[in-house]
Design goal:
By secondary structure, the chain is an alpha/beta fold. Helix content is 34%, strand content 23%. It has one domain (7-143, 163-195, 239-248): Vaccinia Virus protein VP39 (Rossmann fold), CATH 3.40.50.150. It has helices spanning 15-21, 28-36, 56-61, 73-83, 119-127, 148-158, 176-180, 199-208, 210-213, 217-229; strands at residues 44-48, 65-69, 88-89, 103-109, 128-141, 187-197, 236-248.
Length: 251
């Protein structure tokens, strides 16, 4: 494994588990990013930390010239099946295998908090062409009065979540762009959406978290059993928000 990768990232090595547990990004993400960064439909877009291609796929379908970079071999296999081998590269946010100024924009789905706070923004600045920008996206479940069980699931996950340098609930390391100095202040956008699921789907979501996957077998099984015990039967409508932070490359 690359020295650039946080040890917790090893928990993402099962692409099927990740795909079962995670919801798609809302389609409006592509349009919002394209509008805010003023992208032509054939612009070259880099998806960094692309995983299984859940964010790559809608940008490719929209007509963008997509290239996806992912460091984990297991996930690159699934990514290749999603977008084609010619668009997939082995690399990290700290060592991107692309030339200077070679992309119009970078997108990043649910991964930015894993990156080195100093080296990653410098690499993104290097590969983004003048006038381009970056969009960082997270899919965030939002507990509400109709879903009291969702708050209980979050509490159970927090009990086993290890400390993670650079992670915070109110930005997830996004201040790294400002600290670098070569980007405009990131602007936050929200796109509400809903995932229709059931108890199995919610349990799969919890199981897809890297730190849950790395728990010992007995402790992981106990956590997932506790999660299932707080979930109602039948269809579950899980409110989410796609949280986007968009910034432009400066000088």
């Amino acid at each position: 494994m690359s020295n650039d990768l946080n040890d917790l990232v090893q928990g993402f090595r099962d692409p099927e588990r990740y795909a079962r547990g995670r919801t798609d990004y809302p389609p409006a993400v592509v349009g919002l990013v394209a509008a805010e960064l003023e992208l032509r439909r054939d612009a070259r877009i880099l998806d960094i930390g692309a995983g299984t291609g859940m964010l790559s796929t809608p940008f490719l379908a929209a007509g963008f010239d997509l290239v996806a970079v992912e460091p984990l071999a297991e996930l690159r296999h699934a990514l290749t099946a999603a977008v084609g081998a010619g668009r997939v590269l082995d690399g990290t946010a700290e060592a991107i295998p692309l030339e200077d100024g070679s992309v119009s924009a970078v997108v990043c789905g649910d991964a930015f908090h894993w990156f080195d706070r100093e080296r990653a923004p410098a690499e993104l600045h290097r590969v983004i062409a003048e006038g381009g920008g970056a969009a960082v996206v997270w899919r965030v479940p939002r507990p509400g009065p109709q879903t009291p069980w969702l708050g209980e699931v979050a509490r159970l996950m927090e009990e086993v979540r290890p400390p993670h340098v650079g992670y915070d609930e109110h930005g997830r390391g996004i201040a790294a762009f400002t600290e670098h100095g070569g980007f405009t202040t990131p602007v936050r956008h929200e796109l509400p959406f809903e995932r229709v699921s059931d108890a199995d789907g919610v349990v799969a979501y919890v199981a897809s978290a890297s730190f849950v996957a790395l728990l010992g077998e007995e402790r992981r099984a106990g956590l997932l059993q506790d999660v299932r015990s707080v979930l109602p039967d039948g269809e579950l409508r899980v409110p989410h928000v796609a949280e986007l932070w968009i910034t432009r490359r400066g000088g």
